[in-house]
Design brief:
Blueprint: E1 2-7, E2 13-18, H1 22-43, E3 62-63, H2 69-72, E4 87-88, H3 91-103, H4 110-121, H5 129-146, H6 155-173, H7 184-212, E5 220-224, H8 230-239, E6 245-249, H9 253-263, E7 277-280, E8 295-301, H10 310-322, E9 324-333, H11 336-350, E10 363-367, H12 376-379, E11 388-393, E12 404-415, E13 426-427, E14 432-434, E15 437-443, E16 449-454, H13 456-459, H14 461-468, E17 478-479
Parallel strand pairs: 4-11, 5-6, 5-8, 6-7, 8-9
Antiparallel strand pairs: 1-2, 3-17, 9-12, 10-12, 11-12, 13-15, 14-15, 15-16
InterPro entries: Mt_RNA_Methyltransferase, Ribosomal_Rsm22-like, SAM-dependent_MTases_sf
GO molecular function: 4 iron, 4 sulfur cluster binding; metal ion binding; methyltransferase activity; structural constituent of ribosome
Family: Belongs to the methyltransferase superfamily. Rsm22 family.
Length: 495
């Protein structure tokens, strides 16, 4: 004998007590199946009209075959597949990095590399002055209300004690952000820790553009916060035949010197492996009222998080956008902090009212979002980071033997109209493949998230096969009518 409580929609509890028999077990299993079926139906879009229309609906959604890819290639190579195979550093870059570490007077150890990697990954954004002021006022009010402090006869002493108590509390609860100063030693350590992972993340972003727009052949590129120059190497590997100018901007002179040595094979007098690379220590501020030189591709990889305030990040993003001719690529760590930072930059560009005299074209999101609406990951009850993963072969040090995974967040903004981009749902989590069905977590063009369970019987063989061969970060080539089909069980409208 046991008791089970089932809570109804009216928050009433019905208590059932029955004997554990085979018939009761069958009834319980049937009830569980009905509840599970109801959850699946809600997950698949069979929901009340108040919910937004999802992207994958049984019997309605179908494969987007405008390019007639089903006749030209197998499902395993459908046009939404964007995942790169395991990325490897160019041999010249890997050799130069190993040579610089061998010749360095400051030995780099595995423990140091792991410590810097962990520190960079766990880093939060600096707390804004307004937020600090708000916390201080709250703590002061709380201390006064709870009479935590012993009131002194002298009011000046009481204020001093209150001030000290608030400062102590702020130091304990506030993240202490510090600006990193990259000297020669730290630059070399950063190269050992982040050169290969940064190259993998940026390569994946470049591949997104190349795979979807193979006709795009950029001639100029600017890299803000260029660091060791991994963006230059990744761009050369992707568009080396068309790129003629690479502008690398970094505030650290030591980083610029290291990046130049890597280009020259680890020495100061070698021939650069990538021609047309120029280095600058400061980002030129473009006047808003006049035009400025634009670059076909502008990149900021793991650099916006190094700026001390939200206002500084906004100024940099606006400057980078004015210098963007076609694509602005922003990459950060695949954490909540990194994703939040990118969403702020995305909204700043999309909602920007200023028009550049040189290029008045508006901006839209090329990737990863299939829409310009608020990010559903950020507006969820439990916000999640929209991140992706790219496998890569690390620099072959003694402790780097096995392939690794780089987890990162990115946003690619483009000039033009959103109609120019393919708006298919984006797969935002690893695809779960089960017998005769596939679980896909999607970010849909209507700005909503969807957990779709796709089967061949309910969704069609082509869509099922495309979903089964897709991976985290791919696009699912599916289209759905803008209006849901009428449901026979709909409630009549209220009069």
């Amino acid at each position: 004998m046991f008791a089970a409580a089932i809570e109804t929609e009216g928050h009433r509890c019905l208590h059932f007590r029955f004997r554990l028999t085979s018939g009761a077990m069958a009834t319980a299993r049937g009830l569980g199946c009905l509840l599970t079926l109801g959850r699946w139906r809600r997950g698949l879009g069979v929901a009340p009209q108040s919910r937004a229309f999802v992207a994958v609906v049984p019997g309605v959604s179908q494969v987007d075959n405008k390019s007639d890819f089903l006749k030209k290639r197998c499902h395993r190579r459908h046009p939404g597949i964007l995942q790169l195979s395991c990325v490897r550093l160019p041999q010249a870059l890997a050799d130069a990095a190993q040579l610089l570490l061998l010749e360095s007077s400051m030995p780099i150890t595995e423990k140091q590399v792991q410590a810097l990697t962990s520190y960079l990954w766990s880093r939060h954004l600096p707390v804004e002055p307004e937020e600090l002021q708000r916390r201080a006022v709250y703590l002061e009010k709380k201390y006064l209300e709870n009479a935590v402090l012993v009131l002194a006869p002298d009011s000046s002493k009481m204020e001093e004690k209150l001030h000290e108590a608030v400062l102590r509390a702020l130091r304990k609860t506030t993240y202490h952000w510090q600006e990193l100063s990259y000297n020669e030693g730290l630059s070399l350590l950063y190269m050992a820790a982040r050169l290969d992972g940064g190259f993998a993340a940026v390569s994946r972003a470049f591949h997104e553009i190349q795979a979807r727009l193979p006709e795009f052949q950029p001639k100029t590129l600017m890299d803000f916060g260029s660091g060791t120059g991994s963006v230059t190497w990744a761009a050369h590997s992707t568009w080396g035949q068309s790129l003629r100018e690479y502008m690398c901007v970094d505030s650290s002179a030591a980083m610029l010197e290291l990046a130049e040595k890597l280009l020259k094979g680890g020495s100061e007098s070698g021939v650069p492996s990538v021609p047309g690379v120029f280095f600058r220590q400061f980002l030129p501020v473009s006047p808003k009222a006049s035009g400025s030189v634009q670059f076909d591709v502008v990149v900021s990889a793991f650099s916006l998080s190094e700026l001390p305030s939200k206002a500084d990040r906004a100024d940099v993003v606006q400057t980078l956008w004015r210098k963007t001719g076609h694509f602005l690529i922003l990459v950060e760590n695949g954490t909540k902090a990194g994703h939040s930072l990118l969403m702020d930059a995305r909204d700043l560009v999309l909602n920007g009212k200023e028009k550049s005299p040189l290029d008045p074209r508006p901006g839209f999101v090329f990737a990863p979002c299939p829409h310009e609406l608020p990010c559903p990951q950020m507006t969820a009850s439990k916000p999640l980071a929209c991140s992706f993963s790219q496998a890569y072969h690390p620099i072959p040090f003694s402790w780097n033997k096995k392939p690794k995974e780089e987890k990162f967040s990115m946003v690619i903004l483009a000039r033009g109209s959103p109609e120019e981009a393919t708006r298919w749902p984006r797969i935002t989590q690893p695809v779960l493949k089960r017998p005769r069905h596939v679980h896909c977590h999607l970010c849909c063009p209507d700005g909503q998230r969807q957990h779709a369970v796709i089967t061949a019987r309910r969704h069609g063989r082509d869509l099922y096969r495309c979903a089964r061969v897709s991976s985290w970060g791919d696009l699912l080539p599916v289209i759905t009518p803008s209006e849901p089909p009428p449901s026979p069980a709909q409630d009549p409208p209220e009069s």
